[in-house]
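Q: My collaborator sent me two sequences in one message, no labels, and asked for predicted structures for both. Can we handle them in order? The first one she listed is below.
A: Yes, handling them in the order given. First sequence, followed by its structure tokens:
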Amino acid sequence: MTESVDGSGELPPGWAWARLDDLGRWSGGGTPSKQVRSFWENGSIPWVSPKDMKADYVGTGTDRITDAAVANSTVKLVKAGSVLCVVRSGILRHTFPVAIAECDVTLNQDMRALTSHEGIDSRYLQFFLRSQNQRILRECAKDGTTVSSIDGSRLEQLRVPLAPADEQRRIVLRIEELFGEIEAGEQELEKAREGLTAYRLSILKAAVTGELTRDWRERNVPNETGAGLLAQVLNEQHATIGAACGAKSGWRAKGSKEVGLKTDRISSYALDKSHLGTLPDSWVAVRVGDVGFVQLGRQRAPQHHSGPYMRPYLRVANVFEDRIDVADVMCMNFTPDEFESYKLQAGDILLNEGQSLELVGRAAIYREELPGACFTNTLVRFRAGQSLVPEFALLVFRHWMRDRTFQRIAKITTNIAHLGAGRFADLAFPLPPLSEQHVAVQRATELLSAIDEAEREIGAQADEAKRLRQSILSAAFSGKLAPQDQSEEPANALLERLQIMNSSRRSLDKGNATVERRGKRSGRRRRPSDAVREDML
């Protein structure tokens, strides 16, 4: 079968090309006034909007309106079994959602419904529309709209390869059977993916609590205690770390927000360790700001959008978990002094400072993917000190994002979660001896790499399932999926009956409109009863 809009492709014997408009009756929707409480309170009639279009069948679990809303607003009842389509929504940038009404429903103004005529299987139409997803988005999209929209008239003219009525049902049953098998496999893939997610969290936790290196410690008795390690950390010259980030006068650089080392005495060194659990005796809990330099990036203000020192910078859109993406990088002006303060160097860890709550603190190591890059205040930079391996710090930060430690300290402003450089620097950090850090990093890297590889394989299988679905649909609507019976009534005969019925319906609608116009002029409103109208159709 071709994708020709005019339906010029060759079809199997007994099939015929038809327009969607020939196969059913279209209806739209609306929104009852939210100001009228009687339209919404204790409603029993489903009111479907694009947010509900996430399954094959919709109707339950949606918003509901009352009979009064149907009688006194623009919404009308749509029969169970109708094909529901989204015609205005951001989702139309990539997907054309189609579902079946599992009961009588109403629609909002961003939806349309096609109630199929007798002899036309609604699921057949639904599967066909899904098979044409990209074509519909490409050929039926409205131009010049702020929100992605479908042109209803173009959609109505879409050509459908119509099989005989009984063959439609056989095709639908076969698609459902094959899709069911695919779905069962996808459910297993999802279980495997969830298992890998849990396993990754357990590996990260084991790495940053000492469980992953327990056997190593038993064979390699540490030469230092936790107290000795703490003393070593506190004796480090914080100016060394500060200078590494271009800081002046010890640890603070002009115009930047930086949190440097604290010099509390060991006897008064107290901090909240509740999120760390029990650490091995040779480990110590220290502040993040005691083992590294924390700095918030430079603001992206209008005065920096141009100038003689335009340089690339990274922002929150570039930093993913354990991965920096430089496919979309912007530039702004950094003076020589600012560049010295905000330039990135290999080994720096960047964390999302402003993000959705579940992703706040998402971290990755900068490995000079973009030489000469700086960073903005949507990110926090952490540069490890002498007592810390950067890759071990990354394990800790990844664990904190996944176990919600970062979520617990984040502050929410205008629906964005902010990590906060100061709050981050004051978090208690689990610090092992350097030698054990290297072992933990090596072991965790090997295990996490295996998990990543398994996830890539799952992703490949999921992609293959999508391709297989599309192949099944392609076969279905070219007559290659279900057996054909030449003794069955051909689709042309069915279409002839539908054309007669449609002609009668249009005449009825025209007469009905005339009656209504006359009724309005005379102050009265007359129209055939619904029962008579249904009999005529």
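Q: And the one she listed second?
A: Here it is, processed independently of the first:
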Amino acid sequence: MDEELFRKGFTQNREISWLRFDGRVLDEAKDETVPLLERLKFIAIHVSNLDEFFAVRAGSLLEMKKLKPKEIDLKSGLTARQQLEAVYHEARKQYARRQRCFKEVSGQLEAAGIHDLKMSDCTKDEQKYLKRYFMTSILPLLSAEIVDARHPLPSLKPGAIYAAGILRHRNRDVFAFVMVPQKISDIIGLPSTDGLRFVHTEDVVLEFMPTLFKGDAVREKLKFYVTRSADVDADDEMFEDIHDYRQKMLKVLKARRRMSVLRLDVSRTPSVRMRKYLLDHLGIDSDDLFESVLPMSMKYAFSLGGMLSEEQKAKLLYPPYVPKLSTALDYSADLFPQILKKDVLLSYPFESMDPFLLLIRQAASDPSVTSIKIAIYRLARKARLVDYLTLAAENGKEVDVLIELKARFDEQNNIDYSERLEDAGCTLMYGFEDYKVHSKICLITRMNGRRPEQVALIATGNFNENTAAQYTDLAYMTARHSIVKDATAFFSNMMIGRLDGSYNALLVSPVSLKPRLLDLIQRETEKGKKGRIVLKINSITDENLIQALQKASAAGVDIQMVVRGICCILPEVPGKTEHLHIRSIVGRYLEHSRVYVFGSGAAERMYISSADFMTRNTERRVEIACPILDAQIRREIHQILDCCFRDNLKARKMKSDGRYAKIKNAQDPFSAQDELMRITPASDQAIPLPQRRKAISAFKTIYQEESGKKKK
């Protein structure tokens, strides 16, 4: 690796690139063509994104600053300390911008009849109502604490909101606090005939906090929350004595709650005394303190819609869109035989995930199905997929589930599901010590007499029913021999803990994915100006792939990229990446699908994949890229890509300095996501209810729920 190559002006720092993506999220919050309540949601998404950024990346940089203070980031030439300084500087700029945006959106919502009230804004009757509500519904859930010699400050829960103050207790001042309950609504609606009026639960707790300390005067009070590092390695030697992997991951989650505090968010400027107390006791300095006028919790932005009238919803929210059933399948018949005859592509969220779920549900009760194998990374909180897999196991099918317990921030959810699946009789695997299994693959085997038949599904996104309606992803169902043969080999290798398996059609990291991608890029490089590369990915940080793409561009290869988030290669740098062009799309749905296209015409090679062009994906994860061999499905994917490159509303073009600019030629406004919602055909069929008694009995709740929907 020529390290000097990464100091010659065509790469940038990944952390700043990540934060620039967050800046594009704020662009949507400021965009007046976006409905008002959706703009508020984008502010909430920005808050969540920045919290995750600090927990994940700032935590890693902090550790690097301690352990390797002189190490240089090859893409930017910065030490960890310099990167942290740049990160905090950019974060403060975004805080200020976010606060201005929140004030603007809140003012417009107020004019639209959505009244976000401070306690002081409430009428006397409303204040009485809130006091009664506090006494009956909130107070029983509170546990107030003071901090003194006998009551040390406990380990504050990351992300939890605290109402805190300086309390005069027994003739001395002490710090006092109470955690706002996390299991109740973030907002309290007020009885009103004048639009929607509400207050934040955190403000009600802060207002009535003095009642928790009878006889003690509260001299100063504010709200705050802390962000802790989430950079806990499950393979750390501190966990070596734990042999049960689920128990190890539970220990990791506990360790995360005690990691270093990286940031303190406060609701107002604290007094010198309060400020010193918080900074000293949390072990941080003034650079780590951020003041915000926003509510500490912004989750309410996603529940407000349920409190609106139909007229308000029409004005303040995106027009409703229900993912459509693919027209490629006949839902009155079993799906497995249909997929044996033709490949099927599902394009989320424009199309529904239900056909895949129906396939699993039918397989669970099909006497001819012998096995279902699946690799799971993230699941919905209430996952029908798990219901169907457990039914399959209870019906005597061999159900092998590779579930990744190291899926960051979903560890507890996956632990809970792993226990349930195991109890039902599924065979559980947890992946590898040093590698996350991020692949999205499922394989169903059925006997036709004495002959086995197999269908595989390979996807770019998780088997998650919630995100399938929110993220753009592709799911490919096929019975092609080359692919199902590799899928069989993949699960066989996973069962015996083998990473270095051999595959013919599939590209599988950490062994064959990256070398094959480099070969494909080199093939186009050798064509020079006749070469063509089209990539749709979420992030690119891998130095080898960056170097290969730069050389391809220098050779004249036309490279078109859609990169949603982190992008460490700079486009259109004279003499370096002149033929490489990058755009990012941030819109109603999160762009998440990964597509690689090399060449054109008969020589074209197209893959969909779970992997971004990041070192963690290519070298430290088990990922799959699947070739698309069906001509019709390639055309469907090209249509998606073409829409992305035509977008001049939600797309931003990256400039050679790493900053983004709107597309100037917007005389004919075009949004890729809007167009795909419009042109995606809808089946006139309905998913049939399960008819077999066993299925109905096992899924009584689901059956009743679906029956109710059908009757309506």
